[in-house]
Amino acid sequence: MNKPCILALSALLLSLNAPALTLEPIKFGDFSQWITREITESKLIGGKQKTVYAIGPTAHIKGNTAYSNSGGSPWASSNVYANVSGIVKASNTVSPFVREGDTCARMEAKMEEVKVLGLINMDVMVAGSIFLGRVFEPITSTKGPYSKMEMGVPFTRRPVALVYDFKVDMPADDSRTKATGFSSKKTLQGRDNAEVYVLLQQRWEDSNGKIYAKRVGTARERYDRSIPWTKGHRLDIHYGDITRESFYKPWMGLLNGEKAYYARNSKGKLVPVEEIGWAPADATPTHVLVMASSTCGEAFIGTEGLTLYVDNIAFGF
């Protein structure tokens, strides 16, 4: 028996021996409902009407208005309405996709162009991402992208896994593009990866309004090739300090410094959440972060055309 067959048989046996999970879907995580926004870009850059999607109860919003989560939806995305120096621009890299009569979320890495003859000539690489949290519109610059969104939602349970359906379409190109809008595009070697993760944190705030956290649970997976539709994929959550485990990779580590995500403190200010250590394996979290993205690197770097599809996201207990 050749090696691929042995690996496939081993995976099958493991799945048969794994205990059945009780699944609790994340609200709107079946992606059957979407909010459709119609935003008109500035005449200076062509005045196009752009359709921008949000995950939530079915609705239609027309007009250049800032959006915040509605209908109890915990989901935000990389789709945004921006107003930079009076110029309105919309970006849409996440959209509904219908497959065999079922609607899922489609996330694509693409280049957004802003061109004004003699004034502006900008290219910005934008990844398609969905996450539990909020984005604060309108976006007024491309600087400090994490400081414009709140990552994570309150959560005090200890799931065993994140379970979801997914597919990856990976371009054959082994390169990435860096385009921030402030300088010319650069081609970087190495293929980008799509990614899904769930992180559990135990957060607290000090008297100065700074937010700190310890990592309670970690599940992070990257995809470097095309993968056909896979149903009921199980991403196991590992509790406590995982740095000595055989599966540990540096990108599973703590998020601090430039890697820190942001949250609102008790004073209503967005501040970085500094992960300062690993919580005991039996700790209770206060927040959960879930993200699915068509990129895994730093902001404004990606492989154009890399597309991730996800559906039916649930916690497994």
Description of the structure:
The structure is a single chain. The chain has one helix and 26 strands. It has 317 residues and is mainly beta. It has one domain: Sandwich (Jelly Rolls). The strands form six sheets. Strands 5, 12, 13, 14, 18, 19, 21, 22, 23 and 24 form a ten-stranded mixed beta sheet that branches. Strands 1, 8, 9, 15, 20 and 26 form a six-stranded antiparallel beta sheet that branches. A three-stranded mixed beta sheet has the order 3-2-4, with no helix packed on it. A hairpin with an 8-residue loop joins β2 (34-40) and β3 (49-55). It starts with a helix and ends with a strand. 35% of the residues are buried.
How is the main sheet built?
10 strands, mixed
CATH topology: Jelly Rolls
Strand content is: over 45%
Corresponding CATH architecture: Sandwich
* CATH class descriptor: Mainly Beta
Element pattern in H and E: HEEEEEEEEEEEEEEEEEEEEEEEEEE
What structural class do helix, strand and pairing data support?
mainly beta
